Amino acid sequence: MPISVTTSDQYNLSVVLNDGNTVNLTTSATSVAVSQASPINITVSSKGPKGDPGVGGSATQVVTDLNGMTGTINIAPVEGSTNVDVTDDGSGNIYIDVDDFSYTNATAMPEAVGGWPSGSTFTDKTLQDMFDGLLYPYQEPSFSSFSLADISNTREVGSSIPANSTYTFTASNTSNINAGSVNITYSGTSSGTIATGLNINQSPYDASHSAIANSTAGNLTFKVEATNSQGGLFSKTYTVSYRWRVYWGNSALDSLTEADIKGLDSSDLKTSKNGTYGFTTATNQYKYLCWPNDFGSPIPVTGFKDAANGNSIVMATSADDSFFSNTHNGWSYGVVSVTNSNNVTTNYRVYRSKNKLGSALSITVS
Protein backbone atom coordinates (compact mmCIF):
# COMPACT_ATOMS: atom_id res chain seq x y z
CA MET A 1 0.00 0.00 0.00
CA PRO A 2 1.49 3.41 -0.98
CA ILE A 3 2.29 5.99 1.67
CA SER A 4 3.49 9.58 1.40
CA VAL A 5 6.42 11.08 3.31
CA THR A 6 6.53 14.87 3.68
CA THR A 7 9.28 16.91 5.38
CA SER A 8 9.75 20.56 6.28
CA ASP A 9 12.76 22.54 4.99
CA GLN A 10 14.66 21.94 8.23
CA TYR A 11 15.21 18.26 7.51
CA ASN A 12 17.40 16.40 5.09
CA LEU A 13 15.91 12.92 4.76
CA SER A 14 16.55 9.93 2.55
CA VAL A 15 13.74 7.46 1.94
CA VAL A 16 15.42 4.15 1.17
CA LEU A 17 13.18 1.75 -0.73
CA ASN A 18 13.38 -2.01 -0.54
CA ASP A 19 14.85 -2.25 -3.99
CA GLY A 20 17.80 -0.09 -2.91
CA ASN A 21 16.71 3.10 -4.62
CA THR A 22 16.84 6.28 -2.58
CA VAL A 23 14.54 9.29 -2.68
CA ASN A 24 15.90 12.44 -1.02
CA LEU A 25 13.64 15.04 0.60
CA THR A 26 15.64 18.23 1.08
CA THR A 27 13.37 21.16 0.25
CA SER A 28 10.34 22.63 1.92
CA ALA A 29 7.16 20.55 1.74
CA THR A 30 8.69 18.09 -0.65
CA SER A 31 6.89 14.75 -0.59
CA VAL A 32 7.15 11.40 -2.28
CA ALA A 33 4.70 8.52 -2.66
CA VAL A 34 6.32 5.24 -1.70
CA SER A 35 4.71 2.06 -3.02
CA GLN A 36 7.20 -0.49 -1.78
CA ALA A 37 6.23 -3.23 0.65
CA SER A 38 7.10 -2.40 4.24
CA PRO A 39 9.33 -1.83 6.08
CA ILE A 40 10.56 1.41 4.51
CA ASN A 41 13.74 2.87 5.98
CA ILE A 42 13.99 6.65 6.42
CA THR A 43 17.60 7.66 7.03
CA VAL A 44 18.19 10.94 8.87
CA SER A 45 21.14 12.71 7.26
CA SER A 46 21.18 15.89 9.38
CA LYS A 47 23.74 16.24 12.14
CA GLY A 48 23.41 16.80 15.87
CA PRO A 49 22.15 14.85 18.86
CA LYS A 50 19.30 12.53 18.09
CA GLY A 51 15.89 13.42 19.54
CA ASP A 52 12.63 11.58 19.91
CA PRO A 53 11.51 10.40 16.47
CA GLY A 54 7.90 10.05 17.54
CA VAL A 55 5.63 7.05 17.86
CA GLY A 56 3.51 5.00 15.54
CA GLY A 57 -0.27 4.83 15.45
CA SER A 58 -3.12 5.13 13.05
CA ALA A 59 -3.82 7.68 10.31
CA THR A 60 -1.22 10.42 9.93
CA GLN A 61 1.97 9.85 11.88
CA VAL A 62 3.90 12.90 13.15
CA VAL A 63 7.59 12.81 14.07
CA THR A 64 8.93 15.84 15.98
CA ASP A 65 12.15 17.08 17.60
CA LEU A 66 14.45 15.05 15.34
CA ASN A 67 18.21 15.58 15.87
CA GLY A 68 17.50 18.59 18.05
CA MET A 69 15.77 20.49 15.24
CA THR A 70 12.22 21.76 15.04
CA GLY A 71 9.71 20.99 12.37
CA THR A 72 7.72 17.89 11.41
CA ILE A 73 7.86 14.81 9.29
CA ASN A 74 4.36 13.68 8.36
CA ILE A 75 3.92 10.04 7.37
CA ALA A 76 0.49 9.10 6.07
CA PRO A 77 -1.11 6.32 4.01
CA VAL A 78 -2.10 7.68 0.62
CA GLU A 79 -5.20 5.51 0.39
CA GLY A 80 -6.51 6.37 3.84
CA SER A 81 -5.37 3.16 5.52
CA THR A 82 -4.81 3.39 9.27
CA ASN A 83 -2.29 0.56 9.40
CA VAL A 84 0.92 2.60 9.68
CA ASP A 85 3.47 1.98 12.42
CA VAL A 86 6.54 4.17 13.06
CA THR A 87 9.52 2.91 15.06
CA ASP A 88 13.09 4.01 15.71
CA ASP A 89 16.22 1.84 15.91
CA GLY A 90 18.08 4.29 18.17
CA SER A 91 20.69 5.11 15.52
CA GLY A 92 18.96 7.80 13.51
CA ASN A 93 16.79 5.47 11.43
CA ILE A 94 13.02 5.65 11.40
CA TYR A 95 11.15 2.56 10.19
CA ILE A 96 7.68 2.76 8.71
CA ASP A 97 5.69 -0.46 8.75
CA VAL A 98 2.58 -0.50 6.58
CA ASP A 99 0.12 -3.37 6.87
CA ASP A 100 -0.96 -3.59 3.27
CA PHE A 101 -2.74 -6.98 3.61
CA SER A 102 -6.51 -7.05 3.33
CA TYR A 103 -8.48 -10.21 2.68
CA THR A 104 -12.09 -10.34 1.52
CA ASN A 105 -14.05 -13.43 0.52
CA ALA A 106 -17.85 -13.63 0.65
CA THR A 107 -17.89 -17.38 -0.04
CA ALA A 108 -18.66 -19.35 3.11
CA MET A 109 -15.89 -21.72 4.20
CA PRO A 110 -16.95 -25.31 3.39
CA GLU A 111 -15.31 -26.69 6.56
CA ALA A 112 -13.61 -25.45 9.72
CA VAL A 113 -9.91 -24.59 9.60
CA GLY A 114 -8.10 -23.78 12.84
CA GLY A 115 -10.18 -21.22 14.69
CA TRP A 116 -12.32 -20.31 11.68
CA PRO A 117 -15.58 -22.29 11.82
CA SER A 118 -17.34 -23.70 8.80
CA GLY A 119 -19.43 -21.00 7.10
CA SER A 120 -17.04 -18.11 7.88
CA THR A 121 -16.79 -15.22 5.39
CA PHE A 122 -14.25 -12.39 5.37
CA THR A 123 -14.37 -8.65 4.72
CA ASP A 124 -11.20 -6.51 4.86
CA LYS A 125 -9.46 -8.81 7.30
CA THR A 126 -5.87 -7.92 8.16
CA LEU A 127 -3.09 -10.46 8.17
CA GLN A 128 -3.09 -10.26 11.98
CA ASP A 129 -6.80 -11.04 12.09
CA MET A 130 -6.45 -13.96 9.70
CA PHE A 131 -3.60 -15.61 11.58
CA ASP A 132 -5.12 -14.93 15.00
CA GLY A 133 -8.32 -16.58 13.88
CA LEU A 134 -6.41 -19.52 12.41
CA LEU A 135 -3.93 -20.20 15.21
CA TYR A 136 -5.89 -19.02 18.26
CA PRO A 137 -9.39 -20.48 18.03
CA TYR A 138 -12.09 -19.30 20.39
CA GLN A 139 -11.87 -21.11 23.71
CA GLU A 140 -15.31 -22.37 24.66
CA PRO A 141 -15.99 -22.09 28.40
CA SER A 142 -17.51 -25.03 30.22
CA PHE A 143 -18.45 -25.94 33.76
CA SER A 144 -15.88 -28.24 35.35
CA SER A 145 -17.87 -29.08 38.47
CA PHE A 146 -21.18 -28.42 40.18
CA SER A 147 -22.30 -29.67 43.59
CA LEU A 148 -24.56 -29.01 46.57
CA ALA A 149 -22.88 -28.78 49.95
CA ASP A 150 -23.48 -31.83 52.14
CA ILE A 151 -26.10 -33.25 49.76
CA SER A 152 -25.41 -36.81 48.57
CA ASN A 153 -26.76 -37.80 45.17
CA THR A 154 -28.73 -40.74 46.66
CA ARG A 155 -31.46 -39.98 49.20
CA GLU A 156 -34.49 -41.73 50.66
CA VAL A 157 -37.94 -40.70 49.46
CA GLY A 158 -39.29 -37.92 51.63
CA SER A 159 -35.98 -36.33 52.59
CA SER A 160 -35.64 -32.64 51.75
CA ILE A 161 -32.92 -30.49 50.28
CA PRO A 162 -32.24 -28.14 53.20
CA ALA A 163 -33.23 -24.49 52.99
CA ASN A 164 -30.53 -22.00 52.00
CA SER A 165 -28.13 -24.62 50.63
CA THR A 166 -24.70 -23.75 49.26
CA TYR A 167 -24.05 -24.33 45.54
CA THR A 168 -20.47 -24.62 44.26
CA PHE A 169 -19.46 -24.44 40.61
CA THR A 170 -16.21 -24.03 38.67
CA ALA A 171 -15.60 -23.36 35.00
CA SER A 172 -12.84 -23.14 32.41
CA ASN A 173 -12.08 -20.15 30.14
CA THR A 174 -13.98 -17.86 32.47
CA SER A 175 -12.98 -14.73 30.54
CA ASN A 176 -15.35 -15.91 27.81
CA ILE A 177 -18.39 -16.15 30.13
CA ASN A 178 -20.86 -13.28 30.01
CA ALA A 179 -21.18 -11.32 33.24
CA GLY A 180 -24.42 -11.93 35.12
CA SER A 181 -25.41 -14.91 32.98
CA VAL A 182 -25.15 -17.71 35.56
CA ASN A 183 -28.49 -19.25 36.62
CA ILE A 184 -29.28 -22.19 38.94
CA THR A 185 -32.54 -24.14 38.59
CA TYR A 186 -33.93 -27.58 39.43
CA SER A 187 -36.45 -29.91 37.79
CA GLY A 188 -37.76 -33.46 37.92
CA THR A 189 -39.97 -34.61 40.77
CA SER A 190 -40.47 -30.86 41.35
CA SER A 191 -39.10 -27.71 39.72
CA GLY A 192 -38.02 -24.20 40.61
CA THR A 193 -35.35 -21.49 40.43
CA ILE A 194 -32.53 -21.11 42.91
CA ALA A 195 -30.79 -18.01 41.52
CA THR A 196 -30.41 -15.90 38.37
CA GLY A 197 -27.97 -13.24 37.19
CA LEU A 198 -24.93 -14.55 39.03
CA ASN A 199 -21.31 -14.03 38.00
CA ILE A 200 -18.96 -16.97 37.64
CA ASN A 201 -16.84 -15.75 40.57
CA GLN A 202 -19.80 -15.92 42.98
CA SER A 203 -19.14 -19.57 43.77
CA PRO A 204 -19.68 -20.97 46.34
CA TYR A 205 -23.11 -19.37 46.36
CA ASP A 206 -25.15 -19.34 49.58
CA ALA A 207 -28.69 -19.47 48.27
CA SER A 208 -31.82 -18.19 49.95
CA HIS A 209 -34.68 -20.64 49.44
CA SER A 210 -37.10 -22.87 51.36
CA ALA A 211 -36.44 -26.57 51.91
CA ILE A 212 -37.17 -28.59 48.77
CA ALA A 213 -39.31 -31.57 49.79
CA ASN A 214 -39.60 -34.72 47.71
CA SER A 215 -42.14 -37.42 48.52
CA THR A 216 -41.90 -39.56 45.39
CA ALA A 217 -39.24 -41.80 43.88
CA GLY A 218 -37.34 -40.33 40.94
CA ASN A 219 -34.67 -37.78 40.12
CA LEU A 220 -34.35 -34.15 41.14
CA THR A 221 -31.84 -32.50 38.81
CA PHE A 222 -30.11 -29.24 39.68
CA LYS A 223 -28.59 -27.29 36.79
CA VAL A 224 -26.15 -24.41 36.58
CA GLU A 225 -26.04 -22.70 33.19
CA ALA A 226 -24.51 -19.60 31.62
CA THR A 227 -23.91 -17.98 28.23
CA ASN A 228 -20.53 -17.55 26.59
CA SER A 229 -19.30 -14.39 24.89
CA GLN A 230 -20.56 -15.70 21.55
CA GLY A 231 -24.08 -16.18 22.86
CA GLY A 232 -23.92 -19.95 23.31
CA LEU A 233 -25.55 -21.63 26.31
CA PHE A 234 -23.64 -24.22 28.37
CA SER A 235 -24.51 -26.03 31.60
CA LYS A 236 -23.74 -28.76 34.10
CA THR A 237 -26.12 -30.80 36.26
CA TYR A 238 -26.14 -32.46 39.66
CA THR A 239 -28.76 -35.18 40.03
CA VAL A 240 -30.21 -36.35 43.34
CA SER A 241 -31.83 -39.78 43.06
CA TYR A 242 -34.71 -40.38 45.47
CA ARG A 243 -35.15 -44.07 46.26
CA TRP A 244 -37.24 -46.41 48.38
CA ARG A 245 -35.58 -48.65 50.92
CA VAL A 246 -35.46 -52.44 50.41
CA TYR A 247 -35.30 -54.63 53.55
CA TRP A 248 -34.04 -58.21 53.87
CA GLY A 249 -32.90 -60.60 56.55
CA ASN A 250 -33.69 -63.58 58.78
CA SER A 251 -36.76 -64.03 61.00
CA ALA A 252 -38.40 -66.95 62.78
CA LEU A 253 -41.82 -65.28 62.36
CA ASP A 254 -44.30 -66.78 59.91
CA SER A 255 -45.28 -63.28 58.69
CA LEU A 256 -44.09 -59.71 59.33
CA THR A 257 -45.53 -56.42 60.55
CA GLU A 258 -44.20 -52.98 59.72
CA ALA A 259 -41.97 -53.01 62.79
CA ASP A 260 -40.71 -56.50 61.89
CA ILE A 261 -39.82 -55.35 58.37
CA LYS A 262 -37.85 -52.37 59.67
CA GLY A 263 -36.14 -54.69 62.17
CA LEU A 264 -34.64 -57.01 59.53
CA ASP A 265 -30.86 -57.34 59.38
CA SER A 266 -30.22 -55.34 56.21
CA SER A 267 -31.61 -52.50 54.11
CA ASP A 268 -30.51 -50.35 51.20
CA LEU A 269 -31.84 -47.58 48.97
CA LYS A 270 -32.61 -49.04 45.55
CA THR A 271 -34.37 -48.20 42.30
CA SER A 272 -35.55 -51.77 41.66
CA LYS A 273 -35.83 -55.18 43.33
CA ASN A 274 -33.10 -56.73 41.17
CA GLY A 275 -29.82 -57.64 42.76
CA THR A 276 -28.14 -60.14 45.08
CA TYR A 277 -29.02 -60.15 48.78
CA GLY A 278 -26.82 -61.73 51.42
CA PHE A 279 -28.26 -63.53 54.46
CA THR A 280 -26.29 -64.55 57.53
CA THR A 281 -26.45 -67.90 59.31
CA ALA A 282 -29.62 -68.13 61.44
CA THR A 283 -30.86 -71.39 62.91
CA ASN A 284 -34.52 -72.19 62.21
CA GLN A 285 -35.28 -68.87 60.54
CA TYR A 286 -36.85 -67.87 57.24
CA LYS A 287 -35.24 -65.64 54.60
CA TYR A 288 -37.34 -62.50 54.03
CA LEU A 289 -37.19 -59.89 51.26
CA CYS A 290 -39.40 -56.78 51.34
CA TRP A 291 -39.65 -53.97 48.80
CA PRO A 292 -42.12 -51.28 47.64
CA ASN A 293 -45.18 -52.55 45.80
CA ASP A 294 -44.19 -50.49 42.72
CA PHE A 295 -41.11 -52.70 42.21
CA GLY A 296 -43.34 -55.60 41.22
CA SER A 297 -42.51 -59.33 41.40
CA PRO A 298 -39.50 -61.24 40.07
CA ILE A 299 -39.69 -63.03 36.74
CA PRO A 300 -41.61 -66.33 36.75
CA VAL A 301 -39.96 -69.58 37.92
CA THR A 302 -36.34 -68.38 38.20
CA GLY A 303 -36.88 -65.00 39.86
CA PHE A 304 -35.38 -66.17 43.19
CA LYS A 305 -32.11 -68.13 42.83
CA ASP A 306 -29.28 -69.33 45.02
CA ALA A 307 -26.41 -67.08 43.87
CA ALA A 308 -23.86 -69.84 44.55
CA ASN A 309 -25.32 -72.61 42.39
CA GLY A 310 -28.16 -71.04 40.39
CA ASN A 311 -30.83 -73.29 41.90
CA SER A 312 -34.27 -71.76 42.31
CA ILE A 313 -35.36 -70.87 45.84
CA VAL A 314 -38.77 -72.21 46.86
CA MET A 315 -40.86 -69.37 48.31
CA ALA A 316 -43.90 -69.39 50.60
CA THR A 317 -47.45 -69.34 49.24
CA SER A 318 -50.89 -68.91 50.79
CA ALA A 319 -50.83 -72.66 51.44
CA ASP A 320 -48.03 -72.01 53.92
CA ASP A 321 -49.64 -68.94 55.48
CA SER A 322 -52.70 -66.91 54.50
CA PHE A 323 -50.57 -63.77 54.83
CA PHE A 324 -49.10 -64.61 51.40
CA SER A 325 -52.43 -64.29 49.60
CA ASN A 326 -51.31 -62.02 46.74
CA THR A 327 -49.75 -63.45 43.58
CA HIS A 328 -47.81 -61.89 40.70
CA ASN A 329 -45.68 -63.71 38.09
CA GLY A 330 -46.37 -66.91 40.02
CA TRP A 331 -44.84 -65.60 43.25
CA SER A 332 -46.90 -65.13 46.41
CA TYR A 333 -46.44 -62.22 48.78
CA GLY A 334 -48.05 -60.32 51.63
CA VAL A 335 -48.70 -56.58 51.68
CA VAL A 336 -47.76 -54.30 54.59
CA SER A 337 -48.02 -50.50 54.81
CA VAL A 338 -44.68 -49.00 55.81
CA THR A 339 -43.99 -45.41 56.85
CA ASN A 340 -40.33 -44.46 56.47
CA SER A 341 -38.22 -42.15 58.64
CA ASN A 342 -39.30 -39.18 56.52
CA ASN A 343 -42.98 -39.86 57.29
CA VAL A 344 -43.80 -41.07 53.76
CA THR A 345 -46.01 -44.17 53.57
CA THR A 346 -46.20 -46.80 50.84
CA ASN A 347 -47.20 -50.48 50.56
CA TYR A 348 -44.45 -53.10 50.67
CA ARG A 349 -44.47 -56.61 49.20
CA VAL A 350 -43.17 -59.23 51.63
CA TYR A 351 -41.63 -62.45 50.27
CA ARG A 352 -40.48 -65.38 52.43
CA SER A 353 -38.65 -68.62 51.83
CA LYS A 354 -40.97 -71.62 52.12
CA ASN A 355 -38.68 -73.34 54.58
CA LYS A 356 -36.49 -72.22 57.43
CA LEU A 357 -32.95 -72.06 56.08
CA GLY A 358 -30.31 -71.93 58.79
CA SER A 359 -27.18 -71.51 56.69
CA ALA A 360 -25.76 -68.32 55.21
CA LEU A 361 -27.17 -67.70 51.75
CA SER A 362 -27.10 -65.18 48.93
CA ILE A 363 -30.30 -64.88 46.89
CA THR A 364 -30.30 -63.30 43.45
CA VAL A 365 -33.55 -61.58 42.49
CA SER A 366 -34.34 -60.85 38.85
Description of the structure:
With 366 residues, the protein is mainly beta. The chain contains two helices and 27 strands. The strands form six sheets. Strands 13, 15, 16, 18, 19, 20, 22, 24, 25 and 26 form a ten-stranded mixed beta sheet that branches. Strands 3-2-5-9-8 form a five-stranded antiparallel beta sheet, with no helix packed on it. Strands 4-1-7-6 form a four-stranded antiparallel beta sheet, with no helix packed on it. Strand 6 and strand 7 form a beta hairpin. The longest helix has 9 residues. It is elongated and about 95 Å long. The two termini are 80 Å apart. About 13% of the residues have low confidence.
Percent strand: 35-45%
Give the helix proportion (percent range). Answer: under 10%
Principal-axis shape equals elongated
Which radius of gyration do the C-alpha atoms yield?
Answer: 41 Å
Number of helices in the DSSP assignment: 2
Summarize the helix and strand pattern as letters. Answer: EEEEEEEEEEEHEEEEEEEEHEEEEEEEE
What does the main sheet amount to?
Answer: 10 strands, mixed
Helix/strand/pairing class, anyone? mainly beta
Tell me how many strands there are: 27
End-to-end Cα distance: 80 Å
